[in-house]
Amino acid sequence: MPKITCDLPQCPVDASVLKTFKQLQLADVNCHQPGPIDILLGADVFGEIMLSGHLNVSGISALESIFGWVILGKTKGISQTIISNHASCNAVEFELDKFWQLEEISNIKPYTQEETACENHFIQTFSRDSTGRFAVKFPFRESSDELGSSRDIAIHRLHQIERRFAKNPSLFNEYHKFMEDYLKLGHMELIPENEIDVPANSSFYLPHHPVPNKSGDKFRVVFDGSAKSSTGVSLNDKLMVGPQLQTDLTTILIRFRMHKIAMTADIEKMYRQIILKDSDFQRIVWRDSPFKPIQDFRLTRIAYGTASAPYLAVKCLQQLAIQEEQNFPLASKAALKDFYVDDLMPGANSTTEALDLQAQLIQMLDLF
């Protein structure tokens, strides 16, 4: 047992208490001062060390032992307790904010080794052009060496959707319009014939197909990054997904409801705002008629359906907020805290603040 108990007595005793017993030879002359235990004896020897002497004065007893007289009893100690009072009055908004800081369950967890590698890859490879637009590279796990040929499966899948188009001309018209829009906006480009033949592990063809919404009146074109190449490995198998960067939706919604003035917005075509440097890994095959030759294109913006797309889009948005913090402090804070993917739910406590926030968000996101 390294320690029996704390120092005893716990508080100093007025030395005047001992004057009554000044004629006695005490076992501990400093018994009125806190100190460590000198010796610990068992009950089996207690009767052998105690002698017959016994005095009692005003509730304080003195018992005679072979070591000298032992003082025990109840007395008033000299308290060393210091009591301090502090009073303050804070605004209700401050107290509520402080409450949420204390009650909020932190969802921050350390990054895995792969998530850290993904973050480092982004920092080392991203850039911004003269207009402020971000350009990124795919974060591959090690390398793309295991990728095999993928053009044949992409052609096979194109034939499948062409059979659907034959049964549904309106679907074809909308799909064709989507592809034309993609091409006109510069989000995909025709691959020159002299660049089509490259090593299989230096490119990847994404099959694509329409996915209707719940009502069935609209659809989204999805590029299938999980389609297997000739080696059985897909593009998504080789891409790092990256860490979760945004706050969970529940926290964002709670904070959204606390604002006096609530605001909402979203980023149109969020993924397609970001340039992909290694666009040969986003090749597709397409033709606007089954009677025309198949053409090879590459998507120059990150595509919906690739494993890294959500991470890259959110990371670019947050990087923009960090880099533009001095120019747009309100917008920067909102972009870091109040985005859930491409949906923004900020707020303000006054009309003036709301208008300032709106103006800053428009200006900052024009650079995205």
Description:
- The protein has 368 residues and is an alpha+beta fold.
- It contains eleven helices and 16 strands.
- A three-stranded antiparallel β-sheet has the order 1-2-3.
- Strand 14 and strand 15 form a beta hairpin.
Task: Describe what is shown at a glance.
It is built from eleven helices and 16 strands.
Keywords:
368 residues, 11 helices, three-stranded mixed β-sheet, alpha+beta
Number of helices: 11
Q: Please state the overall shape, judged from the principal axes of the Cα atoms.
A: elongated
Biggest sheet strand line-up: 1-2-3
Largest sheet: 3 strands, antiparallel
**Strand composition percent:** 15-25%
Q: What structural class should be given to the helix and strand makeup?
A: alpha+beta
Query: Cα distance, first to last residue?
Result: 66 Å
Low-pLDDT parts are none
Helix percent reads 25-40%
The oligomeric state of the chains shown is single chain
- The H/E string reads HEEEHHEEHHEHEEHHEEEEEHHEEEH
Average pLDDT confidence is: 86
Question: What is the radius of gyration?
Answer: 38 Å
Query: Care to count the β-strands?
Result: 16
